[in-house]
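Example record used in the benchmark description.
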Amino acid sequence: MLYIFLSYLVGNILFAVLVGKVRGIDLQQANSGNLGARNAGRTLGKGAFVIVAIGDGLKGLLVVLAGRLLDYSEITIALAVIAVILGHLYPFWNKGKGGKGVATIIGAMVLFAPLSFLVFLGGFGLSVILTKSATISMVVGFVAYGLLLVVQQPAGSLFCIALLLVIWKQRKSIIERVKPNVLE
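Model output (structure tokens):
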């Protein structure tokens, strides 16, 4: 379906690359080398973090919004969310080296199930208080959102594939937070 293919192409727009080019820096060669908001912020400052996070988040939001405006089923929209995430994580033009997908999935989450997004925020917030780790807390929020989504709607399980892709891409960071010396 054209909508799903276009969603993958939208995912290929990496705002970290665009901001890096404007600033004359290849973010793949700086700090973590990741093409996402966190590395943009670490390398170029808070302004770059905000621009990249908003830009990448809008990709997920746009895909869900377009699906709703075109009156596609929730299953089709969930497939498009998977496509936009795959485009962000594995852009064809950059040999499959993209970002980690956090901002993009959050943008999609906001519109896909707005009330469930409050559960994500609650899980994230409580976990930050307990763990002091944004990475671990993000996973806790994703799991809380995903579990609620599976119970609430038939397309929830499909949407969870996108969540799992983002969590998988974060696996090294997660391991570093859980056991700081495991990868050394």
